[in-house]
């Protein structure tokens, strides 16, 4: 099974980055404004509404404040996934920064290039959004 790991340095304290990541109902506001238009929560299920009207349904598996780690799985989306499981984790970096770690395991392997491109693009949006938050 392919696994993609993306580490992004964010010039903000881990507490600030984690506060945005753990707010699973505000994904469209706090992490990826413009990339995702809205976020709907129904229990542990999250639906991301994309600007073109498409939706991605996810299961929020875990939000662990102690390890600053959030785990989710795509149940239905724009890509023909057979399996998807991912985690966001926030680690300290230096005196005031953070490392945002995104790990995604998925099938089929033929989606590797698409998922790598999406991970790179979305990580850059997350970094920009958090570093420019008030």
TrEMBL record:
Signal sequence coordinates: none
Originating species: Cohnella rhizosphaerae
Alphabetized Pfam families for the sequence: Polyketide_cyc2
Protein name: SRPBCC family protein
Domain of life from the UniProt record: Bacteria
InterPro entries: Polyketide_cyclase/dehydratase, START-like_dom_sf
